[in-house]
Specification:
242 residues, Rossmann fold, 2 domains, alpha/beta
Length: 242
Amino acid sequence: MAADKVMVVDDDLNIRLVLKYRLEREGYQVLLAEDGVDALEKVKAEKPDLIILDLTMPRMDGFGFLEEIRNNGRANAVPVIVLTAYGYESNRARSLELGAVEFMTKPFSPRQLVAEVWKILGAKRKRVLVIDDDASVRDLLAGLLEAEGCVVDTAEDGPGGVEKALAGDYDLIFMDSRIPGCEADEATERIIAEKLKQRIVITTASPNDESVHRALESGALAWVSKPFGIEDVRRIKREWLE
């Protein structure tokens, strides 16, 4: 999956370069623009996933840019973090009114800003829980899912998996048919009892195992046979996540 694109709009070259360096270290693709006019052209051409926006710039300031993208279809849905040296309450209020999702002031912590970017973009991704006592299977499935843009948590036994499932908000759960601590059907029943619409897919090395059928009767949606590959994950993602 292609890296998320983050556009930094600021007339200060040093800030642009510092953020480019920090964001690229975290795996993001970074676009740079020196003012609102430059940014508008790049939004149309490059379609960024998130924008970090200064307010005080030549040619077109941050407020002018926000007003323009409000009326620009897809661009209107791009989350914007305002980053400004003028942290007046009036500037915050107007930024949020024009559609910004966050307002931060200079001087700023690049680490904190990158964490905010991760939080915003991570919230757009599907969250998946993998429950399996085999570390190699957990790592393989987590890697395949992350390559498809998912945020993945793992658990190595039934009780731990149930605890995470009930405490978290997952779009999908992959659960081994034979997990230590409790049977897959018992874990499925406990999860479904509290989260009626929770989607659970059973993974198994033995499709004819009675535990698979019991888990399906308990509310699991489907099963996938081990070993599995990227095409299996993409199929399940299309059927149950998209």
